[in-house]
Amino acid sequence: MDPADTAEVGRKEEEHEPETSSLKACFSQGLKQLHKTQELCNATLVAGGKRFPCNRALLASVSPYFQAVFTSDFKESRDGEVLLKDMDPSLLQNLLAYLYSGELALTAENAEDLFTAASRLQVTPALEHISRYLSERISKENCFHLYMLAYDHNNPTLLRSTMHYLGLNFETLLEHKDFPNLDLRALICLISSGHLVITSEMYVFWAVQRWVAAALAERLPVLKTLLQHVRFPLLTPREIAEVQEDVATLDQQVELQWGDLDGAGRLQASGGLRQGMYQERIICIKVPRLRDILSVNEDMDCYMECLDPATGSRTKLPPLELVALPGCSALDHKLYISGGKHPDGSYSQALHEYNSVANHWLQLPAMSTPRSVHILLTCKHKLFALSGWNDTGPLASAESFDVVKQTWSPIASLPVILRFSASASYKNKLYLIGGDADSDEVVYQGILLYDILLDTWVQVPLEFCLHGAAAVTMETGICVLGGFFAKKNTQTYPNSRFSQLLPCTSKCFFMREDGVISNEVTIPPLPLPLAFAGAAYFQGKIYVMGGVCTSRTHDAIYHWEPGESSWTQYPESLTGQGTVVRRVLKCVTLKVLKPNLKALVQDDSASRVAIGLADTKVPFKERREDNAPSCPPDPLTSLGANTP
Hints:
By secondary structure, the protein is of the alpha+beta class. Helices cover about 25% and strands about 25% of the residues.
């Protein structure tokens, strides 16, 4: 046979040769076959008079319960027969089918019974699967029932989910018929949480009052313990009077302790505000260029304002020293501005924090490296200052700031120096999408991913080049909007502006974890090509503000909600008067005080305030009765929104 023919035959044989199965696939297929034929069974489970042959090694590998049974000296271990009293045979059959095939016949009707059975037998994989199923179906009708189910079986997944739901809907659930059935530990965990979604501290007092009154003789001894978790300094004088009257009705011996406190003192004595006492707003940061801050015609004494899209109201933030192109980010109720370039040409390494509760700026420890045109992101209570530029040239260095410890630390340097990237944080990772690389003004055709847990960077290629786009983190991924766009990087552009050489685009796309672009989420194109626009995710909608359209600035505001086919223009412009915005714009969402609390916590004059119980000698926020059940770490905190 001709060698060429031999090679052709070989190629065809290779083409038809079945692919080698993975170990996982072989194992899964083998288990299914063994379950079907009931071969190699060396144990028998008995439930409801029915016998279920099975393999003890399989059971012991996934269940601490069966591992203990089959490795003990008991009769069950020797004979291999385990009698499961009061176990529904259909539930056992369902769980065994799951262990052998990975398929669980889970429905709304059998989920709770399967949860109980899996918990009893400690079938961990099935229990986790059922817990997630139940967690996704928590409602006002079943939340207390599911909480008690989770508590009875000490299941952390379902317990956290139900506690989280109770905290989010606390105000409306106070009147629920099952609320008084909460155990003391659960009630303390709820009312001590800073993540409780309530608009007034009175809801915490009403919760204590209703719970105690439901079984007065039995629960009155723990009234003082519960009242220690009411943040009295957050109550108005009228509310305090109501509390005093109602407490006296329950227990004449309980008295309040008073002190002279101003707004800052109220916050310190209370231990902080609850989550529901804030409301989200969009902060528009008109990040100036150097030419703007040198211009005498620019009114730049305050370049940040708080926007409420629902009402159109705008409030200026207190003024801050003006610098060109600083980093901007936000975390809860605090806004951070880092670095930038001073009017004299020097670079800043300062970090400033705006506290929306106190309504003032505070200077924090400075970055180790002065930088401008850098990226500032927040993730897991840390700030990340990435790349940028200073008088030494482009920077590959990066550093992180721990907002709790108030310290900066170096992190892994970027593999590519980037400016003007779209940036976002999502699931313990930072994303830098496109941008211009190094000092040669080469458009970067890729995504940089930084894993904050591993302190490592990874490069993910893109099929196109992108520069000056905006990015917004949503619940399931990252939205990338507009920018200067090219299908491929054909040349470098020394001493030229990208806006003159790359086309501005209206295209938008959705990106999931690890830089995977998804076509499952369709984002309509922007109403016009835009780059360097500000973008924020606010109350379920994405807002895009300002930016550059080809070579001209633009000051319109658009919003889009997932599911809509197009963007909607906001009634007002960014300036409110249609004037041109000659600045780069950044947008962040920030938590601000609700109006009813501003007078309490921003009042500089001291007044008589109830700060706790009169018979307690330790500081209010540290008090706890010795006989009070201990509470685990805040379950509402452990489920925090990434956010993103």
